[in-house]
Amino acid sequence: MFLFLACSLAHDDTATYVEEAEAPEISSAKVSCDVDDAEWQVDVATENWTGGGRLWLSTDGEYIEDHGIDSVEAEGDGSADRLELDLDIVADWTEASGGSSTVFNCGTPGLAGFLAIFARDGDTVADCRAFGEEPGRWNQWGVGECATTVEISAG
């Protein structure tokens, strides 16, 4: 399996450390694709702080893109976090770059996505959303299972 690796899970915190922060849960997730701007956008709001997130994209489980999602707005008391990711769409897969661009366009047949947020340790998946055609394939592809889905909206 060819795995398109992104940067490390570590990211700069946007708030002060709270030792007893609770596990994060997704309160809203929006995945959109804008044909005119050739861009994917992911916006995730959570209850409690996260350890960042990841977005995986694939059509076949062989070529899998892996994109880190960073926190952009965390409450100082640890009660909420917001993560964002913008991906430019490129024509050549060799130009795709973790966290900044993807070869998958808005109408890619068979596209499936898996969005995960992590607990503060940065390793434990705390919550997820799947989207696209047959999102249950992620379990077969070894990434994981996510029962909650989200629709892709037009940018």
Q: What would a concise description of this structure say?
A:
The protein is mainly beta.
Question: What report would you give on this structure?
Answer:
- By secondary structure, the protein is mostly beta strands.
- It has a single domain (2-8, 22-154), classed as Immunoglobulin-like (Sandwich), CATH 2.60.40.
- Helix content is 3%, strand content 45%.
- It is built from 1 helix and 10 strands.
- Strands 1, 2, 3, 4, 5, 6, 7, 8, 9 and 10 form a 10-stranded mixed beta sheet that branches.
- The protein is globular, with a radius of gyration of 15 Å.
- The termini are far apart.
- Mean pLDDT is 88; it is low at 1-11.
Structural class: mainly beta
Q: From the 3D coordinates, which CATH architecture would you assign?
A: Sandwich
CATH domain class: Mainly Beta
The number of E-state strands comes to 10
| Tally of contiguous helical segments | 1
Rg over alpha carbons: 15 Å
Shape: globular
- Elements, N to C (H/E): EEEEEEEEEHE
What's the overall average pLDDT, rounded? 88
CATH topology assignment:
Immunoglobulin-like
**Number of individual domains:** 1
What percent of the residues sit in helical stretches (DSSP H or I)?
under 10%
What would the keywords be for this entry?
ten-stranded mixed beta sheet; Immunoglobulin-like; mainly beta; 155 residues; disordered N terminus
